[in-house]
Write a structure and sequence with these properties.
Oligomer: single chain
Shape: globular
Helix content: 10-25%
CATH architecture: Beta Barrel
Number of strands: 5
CATH topology: Thrombin, subunit H
Radius of gyration: 13 Å
Strand content: 35-45%
Structural class: mainly beta
CATH superfamily: predicted glycosyltransferase like domains
Largest sheet: 5 strands, antiparallel
Strand order of the largest sheet: 1-2-5-4-3
Number of helices: 1
C-alpha cells in the first residue's frame, strides 16, 4: 500500500532488514509503505503472509522497470527473529 493506493509487485532479496521490489514505476525515497507479502509453504511460516511497514531507500530504473529498495520499520522482535531464521541458509528449506 503506497500513497497512490494498493499496488502489486514482485519481491526478492528478503532479509530481516528489508527487501527489493520490482515495479513498473518509480517511488520516491523516504516514502512510507505498508507491505503484505506471502511466503513459500516450504518456509513453515506460522502464517502464510506477513504485514510490515517499510520506507523506500532507493528506486533505480532498470531495463524492465524499477528496482525499489525497502527498509523495514519497527519490526516486532518475533517477526525479525522469524525472518532471520528464514533467510539463514543453514536452516532454510533449500
Amino acid at each position: 500500500m503506497t500513497p497512490s493506493g494498493l499496488e502489486y509487485a514482485t519481491f526478492e532479496d528478503l532479509s530481516a532488514g528489508g527487501l527489493k521490489l520490482w515495479l513498473d514505476h518509480e517511488i520516491d525515497s523516504g516514502v512510507m509503505i505498508e507491505l503484505e507479502f506471502s511466503l513459500s509453504a516450504a518456509s513453515a511460516a506460522p502464517k502464510n503472509s506477513l504485514r510490515v511497514m517499510g520506507r523506500v531507500v532507493r528506486s533505480v530504473k532498470k531495463e524492465n522497470g524499477f528496482e525499489v529498495g525497502v527498509q523495514f520499520i519497527d519490526l516486532q522482535s518475533s517477526t525479525r527473529a522469524f525472518l532471520e531464521k528464514l533467510v539463514d541458509s543453514s536452516e532454510g528449506p533449500f
